[in-house]
Amino acid sequence: MNDPIATLEWLVDAQQGIPTLTEMPRRTLSDKGIAGPTAAHVIEEIHTPLNLALVTFTTGSSAFQNIVGVTQNELPLRIAAGKRVLAESGVTAGQHMVVTYAPLVNVFTRQALEESGLHWSFLSRSCRDALLVALCRQQPNVVVGESSFLRATLEQALKMNLQAYLPKALTLITAGTPLDEALVPLCASLGYALHDVYGCQEFGWLILDGTPVRDDISLVAAPQGGDWREVIVGGLPTGDSFPVAANGHLCNAQGKIQTWKRQRTTPEYDMVVMATTAHHQEIVERTARTILRIKGRICRVSARLQTDASATHIRLFPVSVPGDEAAKAEAVDIIGPQATAQFDALLSAQRDLQQQAKNDPAWSKQR
Predict the structure, then answer these.
(1) Would you identify the CATH topology of the domain 28-208?
(2) For residue range 310-324, what is the model confidence (pLDDT) as tens digits?
(3) Predicted structure pTM score
């Protein structure tokens, strides 16, 4: 007599496309190129949706670290910016780069480092002594890290009379926090090249030495007034404002955006989608919710949204905070396709998700 349970067991074992735990694809720290130690994290396995290229976190310099999702559709913008930062910093194929804070690789993306032909490594521990050992033993060509950490490490090397052991030529790329101005003369005294890159985990690298590295960067008047401008990336406000001045950046006289003077924009801009290339309003509303969830940016959709437009149109409204003076800035229109590339990439990701949903048959919201 046939055993129906045995037949079911055979059918389960023969299933194609529905993996067991051991068959599930895995994306490790090594796969992402960030397999280095930090003192601010634990290593935790998570189930990451297949429609996301990677999951990372903000640095949390002012609060808790916030989760960030990066869609597959955003990768070309992110990779191109990462490669441009390296090329314009004079980094060439075959060089060795030490990354002092492993999650910074996520801002470049592993693909940008590989396509640039770099070899990269991390510190044995997240401390200045470990960076000193790496500098003296590995003799890297490039170091990427937070500027005050780099400055303090080089000062320690000089106090310990280790200058003879340091690399003779070195390029420092500072990232993550505003540039420590004391690092500028220190690098000059050592004959080291210094570059300052601004960006974030949400969008990748945006500005190098005061010059944008993406074509969808807009600078709009900040409520602080004067020469202050907020950086808008592909139609999405970053919440960061900088003075734009003719006297240039500390690392580049031609760079106008003084990123080391960063301030949070107060009050922030409201982002409202006025027109879309999409056929239906619903997909734009879903994209707006996605932006809030994976980028931490509030995106609203106009009740009079124009669909089937020739280009995306995003309007930024200065938000008045009760009790404060009215915002000095006027509403700003960001019109694509070039200026809204980041938003359009997320809209494309939403469209792909709806057309090729990665659903789990064991979890369905339909009853």
Answers:
(1) Rossmann fold (3.40.50)
(2) 999 999 998 765 555
(3) 0.91
